[in-house]
Amino acid sequence: MTAAVTLNTLRQLKAQGQKFACLTAYDASFSHAISQAGIEVILVGDSLGMVIQGHDSTLPVTLDDMVYHTRCVARGNQGSLLMADLPFMTYGDESAALTSAAALMRAGAHMVKLEGGQWLAPTVTSLRRNGVPCCLHMGLTPQSVHVFGGYKVQGRQEAAAQQLLEDALILEQAGADLILLECVPRQLAESLTKAAQVPVIGIGAGASTDGQVLVLQDMLGLHHGKVARFVKNFLKGQDSIEAALRAYREAVRLGHFPALEHGFE
Ligand code: KIV
Q1: What is the DSSP letter of 125?
Q2: Which of 31, 51, 89, 97 is deepest in the core (most CB within 10 A)?
Q3: Which tens digits make up the pLDDT trace of 48-99?
Q4: CA–CA distance, 81 with 22 (Å, rounded to integer)
Q5: Torsion angle in degrees (nearest 10) through CA of 164, 151, 22, 156
Q6: What is the pTM assigned to this prediction?
């Protein structure tokens, strides 16, 4: 990668209608390979609770876990924008959010991601004021899996879709820098991406979002259990992990991934 990717880079890409890619990483080796492949954003996701720690949800992940993995990823990173998840129950009020975000930023994150809707607006404003850019994870927010009663597509009913759109715009007004949409109908993702000034990253949200994200292990074909519909194995047909990472980057850039079959109506 030539110059380091910043939020300005992502805003410019959105303005130019160019797609960008994001992948999760949890260690220095993969962080190095992902950034060398030109993937714009690395997410130290709390999905590490599942793919690294073997839990069946992200709920057991602690702030210390996130700090440890963020440090590892930051050491390997060669210029991607590094985003780290605020884990479950570490941002319930503004003061907790500031303390938790400070730990991730000190560990090397460039921004934090938090899950929720418009009730997070004051927290986002407060984080931003204190120098912490924010990505808002909306739609299927895995930390609320027990509220949803499982990992289910969100925003299918008209009222829920309208609520999600309204929440996104309120969060943008509050200072959100990015929005990440997980498992929503592609029509909703398309409307939200058009309505939002900030770049929108999708997973299971169709091809219209400004960027795409996948969990590293998923795109390398390493699964235990059910494979989600939005996953594609990019190692298939490639002779190395580096080639798979570049294939993912190119497929996103060219709009070849995700295909219709990876999304929801
Ligand atoms: O934790 C994570 O890896 C995520 C992605 C699924 C977007 O939030």
Answers
A1: H
A2: 31
A3: 999 999 999 999 999 999 999 999 999 999 999 999 999 999 999 999 999 9
A4: 9
A5: -30
A6: 0.97
* Probe target for ligand 1 pocket from 47, 61, 180, 229, with the most ligand atoms within 8 Å of CB: 47
CA distance 109 to 169: 25
CB 209 within 8 A of CB 200: yes
Label residue 131 left, alpha or beta by phi (over 0 means left) and psi (-120 to 50 means alpha).
Answer: left
Ligand 1 pocket, 47 CB below 6 A?
yes
Chain centroid offset of residue 202 CA: 8
Instruction: Write the pLDDT tens digit of every residue in 140-181.
Output: 999 999 999 999 999 999 999 999 999 999 999 999 999 999
Task: Please tell me the residue having the least CA distance from ligand 1 atom 2.
Answer: 45
- Nearest protein CA to atom 1 of ligand 1, as residue: 45
Q: How far is the CA of 83 from the centre of ligand 1 (A)?
A: 11
CB 209 within 8 A of CB 229: no
Spot the catalytic one: 182, 242, 250, 261.
182
In whole angstroms, give the CA distance from residue 115 to residue 180. 9
Is 192 touching ligand 1 by the criterion CB < 6 Å?
A: no
* Two tokens, residue 210: 């400004």
